[in-house]
Design a protein that fits this description.
alpha/beta, 8-stranded parallel barrel
Amino acid sequence: MANKLKDAWAQGRAFVNGWLAIPNGYSAEVMAQAGFDSLTVDMQHGVQDYLSAVSCFQGMQPHGVTPMARVPWNEPGIVGKILDAGAMGVICPMVNTPEQARQLVSSCRYPPEGTRSFGPIRAGIYGEAGAYFDTANKDIAVIPMIETKEAIDNLPAILDVPGVDGVYIGPSDLGLSYGLAPRLDREEPEILKIYERVLEECGKRNIAVGLHNGTAAYARKMIGMGFKLVTISNDSGILLTAAKAAVATAKG
């Protein structure tokens, strides 16, 4: 059950991630054939619930992309449940303190490393646990979101929590926390300086850094800056952008 994302990070390679806001397995199946390395079901701000997340995982499974999820909050029940459904990585919003980071790691790890309850109904081959338990603690990627001034102030302590594999920056909430308007693809010098600090601190600890991006061009730029997980918009945003362009062309 090797995790291609963690393997790529170990080799210093970046992953290009797709974001699934649409609660539909067919949509996920289409996105899975677009060339993304991973796809993340967004259960926080996307129109996704648990059953739609399972459907999305089923849609992407035949195509070799790494399945992940952003959970709604740092709550052990939904973290364990989405892992049981087959997620290979958990992105968790608003992790602002080392205590919250420890809780997230604990929710993602079986004892003795954590407190996750055993019952991988789908991840463990539809109710048969198989060898899932043997490698799950090593293979699951634990990725707290760094998206507030409080999290930046506590950054070294968060990164020093054992079991944190990567962090994921949410540019909109990070901007809000510093009194700026919410947006992606930020160019403010003070925000870029924060990005540089996060990359530096994570580099000292061999921890990968992810970022949500509005455009592919900006995502490419951020890979050059050192980010190892770059998300391009989301499925609904890509659909709307392409639809508007097609209609504009047709209407002249």
